[in-house]
Amino acid sequence: MKRIDCPWCGPRAENEFTWGGEAHIVRPGLSCGDGQWRDYLFTRSNPRGAHQERWCHTYGCAQWFHVARDTLTHRIERVYAIDEGPVDATG
Amino acid sequence: MRLAEGGTHIDRSRPLSFTFDGRAYQGFAGDTLASALLANDVRVVARSFKFHRPRGVFGVGLEEPSALVTIVRGPDREPNLRATEVQLSDGLVACSQNAWPSVRFDLAAINGWLAPLLPAGFYHKTFKWPRWSWYEGAIRRTAGLGRIAGTADATRESKRFHHCDVLVIGAGAAGRAAAEAAAQRGADVTLVDSGRIATLPNVRALPNTTAIGCYEDRLVAAIERIGDRQRLWKIRAAEIVFATGATERPLVFENNDRPGVMLASAVGAYLERYAVVPGRNVAFFTNNDSVYPIAEALRSRDVVVSTIVDTRRDDAVLDSRRVDCDVLAVSGGFNPNLQLFSQAAGKLRYDEKLAAFIPGEAPPGLRCVGAAAGEIDGGVAPRWRSPGNPRKQWVDLQYDVTVADVELAAREGFSSVEHLKRYTSVGMAPDQGKTSDVNALALLGEITGRAIGDVGTTTFRPPYHPVTIAALAGARTGSLAQRYRRLPVAWHEKNGGVMEDHSGWLRAAFYRRDGESEAQAIAREVRAARFGAALFDSSSLGKIEVFGRDAAEFLNRLYVNNVKTLAPGRLRYGMMLGENGVIKDDGVFGCLAPDHYLVCTSSSGARDVAFWMEEWRQCEWRELDVRIVPQTAQWATLTVSGPKSREIVARLGVDIDLSAQAFPHMHVRSGSVALKGDPQVRVRRASYTGEMSFEIDIAAEHADLLWSRLLELGAAENITPLGMEALDVLRVEKGFLEVGVDTDGETTPLDVGWGEAIAKKPEDFLGRRSLSRPAQQRADRLQLVGLQPEDPQLFLPVGVHAVDDAGAPIGHVTSSCVSPTLNRSVAMARIRGGAKRSGEVIAIDIDGTRHRARICDRAFYDPQGARLNG
């Protein structure tokens, strides 16, 4: 079981957290086309490698935050605040 | 036999009595069952898994493949324990398993004669026709291991968490050195070993503790044995040192599974630890140097060592020499124990010099030391098989896999190591192939002409050593296995309430009275709500308070309803959708003040809705000034419902004007009630029964008192406690939908008749865009309607299908009851295009019989809602 470094509580066991899926997905407005809405609902990058996602420390501080994680190695590269924008994948 | 002196592990001043298969024996404190049996010259202790071959003790520790026994403790029995890991205790009762009538004479040993018919995969081939299930019972009975008692396990095991800087697994010389060194540099060190551990300064020792699994970020699961009890440890370490040692491999030759054939290292350990020699005349068979010191030790204790056959020297004469002995101690080299290291993502590589896999690249924080790291002397010259009948040469003793089985697998194309394992079951027994591992790979390599390193190993998975389910369950057995939430009112359980699980809460289905059937009780409760007064504990109702300047804006984005037009003191029934447009939850919400709202959710949705609100608040709408406070458990909710409800609530003495003019339906008021301490109450006029109702929220600690007070005050009106079953009848009579019952993962508000209401709202809300997708607009969607069977007494079971003329399904019944109020059967159903089919008669198929039912409006009772207003 992984340990995740909660920005508020420090490193805690994975089963205290809830995974919130891919981060930095922008919600389109009501007037968007069907295709754009479909992409918002369903289309995810599902990469083999660097991935930015949303986690919540459900059984702790109940705060959401961002995690940059490698889906291949499971290594957590960085934990960053929920109001921070996407990390440049190349940087 | 036991020698007169010596034995580092035994205490000769403390003799112990035990029985094996009903016969009494003596051993000493410190013995294992295996050493005590060998001391008493018990040679046959078990029968093998498939062929029922006689087996004796083969090893000395966790690697033991043959000596599986059952320990009996009163009515309980624990099967499949290795005799080598059972600590002897006074009065211990052990017996053999997988043998009938006895381990010395086992009728099923005829399987051995049938061996040519029972190769690997035999049942896939032989018992195909007409089907496997015809034979399965008989085959499973002859094959197999020990049997459990079949009664509930009375013991309750425990669990512990532990954190340390350095975890050392294995307390041999290398492990002790690593632990000492780490302690000296000031680290917090824990040392685990499945056996005993001599004290080290500043090291926390966990003896009798076997690490069974190694997981991500250096989490180790370990089982500690404390007498008959077990404790599961979950240890998180900054660094793990694997001092897990090495396991000796047997040599593969004809009849290498006979009692008396043992690992040479085990013979050495029995002599040193227990002063036990398993026979009177020991011969050695080896391909390396490790046996020579053992032979020397035996000779020095006057034990006859008749010969040492070393394959590196004596290969040519192997077939022609006859050697008398009653113990044959074998050594085929050593495998470093890297199962746990490998589980932790450590890489392995094959080392030609050791003829074994040794640690390769290690993830950060992991390292191997000692024999586990490949520090093994011995000059091994591999010899993977011997001449002779391949059917009689055992590779995996525990699952009876022979050289012939490996050959067969290779011949039939199962040449990948993972296929070999699954086809022959080599390494899949409870011992996880501790003694068969490299032998099987090497044989496969030899047969298929590949190097062992290229054959590779199978994936090592937890548990490294068998673990009982009881140890994993810990204290969570019996009533603690599934824990329910309890209502704050204790009255129900003591007064005939039949308590059942409703979305995790124990709630009364109905209240039983003497001489009443369940149906009569439900009908009585329904009548009370319709014509008198009913009292209902709805404390599990989800209650979430939303505060802040932007509370209205926030909720307006969550609800399909217009929240901004809601004046303080008013309630509205609302729905929330997921972004896919599907109904997520429903319930009443109210405005308590311009910056203070109350959201009521379904009992099952309370947690999810609060969690989901937080996600939107924290992640997406950070500009809004909102605070979300879940209050479900803090506030109990007691509901008085029925035409006489107002007069009863009025007698409570609440400082709220309860008149219909001052406090109409769908309003909320706050005040206090004349109970001890004048507790605060919040009263909602909302109704799930269709009758005038007062939902009274009160701090949970006052709920018991308020409940009894309401029963007292309503005695004249015969106020009646109402259970979940009656509530369901009442809401079906009214056609009120229940999310998750009358809706599913496809149902949108358009499918339940909310299209017009939604069209009036100008702003966006969660899920709104999904509703305008073409698929949501189709006329043939499943839409929620009312249904009345033409036979008024015909109950329509929930789930039955509506069918068209051709018999194809066009929908299904979602809720149903025979209404005691209307004295007829009514139901709700989701029917294709149902919204436009009112009045149509359709066919309902119940177990192949068609019944006619008419589609109608859902509100069967009081469709105008006059009774709500009171």
Gross CATH architecture of the largest domain in chain B = 2-Layer Sandwich
How do the helices and strands follow one another from N- to C-terminus of chain A? EEEHEEE
Sheet of most strands of chain A: 4 strands, antiparallel
Number of helices of chain A: 1
Look at the structure and name the CATH superfamily of chain A: Folate-binding superfamily
Quaternary state of this entry equals heterodimer
Which percent band covers the strand fraction of chain B?
Answer: 25-35%
Mean pLDDT across the residues of chain B is 93
Q: Which ranges of chain B are low-confidence, i.e. pLDDT below 50, for 5 or more consecutive residues?
A: none
Low-confidence stretches of chain A: none
CATH class descriptor of chain A: Alpha Beta
Instruction: Give the domain tally of chain B.
Output: 5
Summarize the structure.
Chain A has 91 residues and is mainly beta. Chain A has one helix spanning 34-42, and strands at residues 3-6, 10-13, 18-22, 50-56, 64-70, 76-80. Chain A is globular.
List keywords for this structure.
heterodimer, A: 91 residues, Folate-binding fold, 4-stranded antiparallel β-sheet, two-stranded antiparallel sheet, 1 helix, 35% strand, B: FAD/NAD(P)-binding domain, Gyrase A, domain 2, 7-stranded mixed β-sheet, 29% strand
Protein model, in words:
Chain A is mostly beta strands and 91 residues long. Helix content of chain A is 10%, strand content 35%. Chain A is built from one helix and six strands. Chain A has a four-stranded antiparallel sheet, with no helix packed on it. The longest helix of chain A is centred in the middle third of the chain and has 9 residues, at 34-42. The longest helix of chain B is centred in the last third of the chain and has 15 residues, at 606-620. In chain B, strand 5 and strand 6 (76-82) form a beta hairpin. Chain B starts with 10 loop residues before the first strand and ends with a helix. The model of chain B has no long low-confidence stretch (mean pLDDT 93). The radius of gyration of chain B is 37 Å and the shape is elongated. Helices cover 22% and strands 29% of the residues of chain B. Chain B has five domains: 11-113, 2Fe-2S iron-sulphur cluster binding domain, sarcosine oxidase, alpha subunit, N-terminal domain (Ubiquitin-like (UB roll), Roll); 155-247 and 333-378 and 477-482, FAD/NAD(P)-binding domain; 485-540 and 634-730, Probable tRNA modification gtpase trme, domain 1 (Gyrase A, domain 2); 542-630, Alpha-Beta Plaits (2-Layer Sandwich); 731-868, Gyrase A, domain 2 (2-Layer Sandwich). Chain B is an alpha+beta fold. In chain B, strands 8, 9, 10, 11, 12, 13 and 22 form a seven-stranded mixed sheet that branches. The interface between A and B is medium-sized, with 25 and 20 residues.
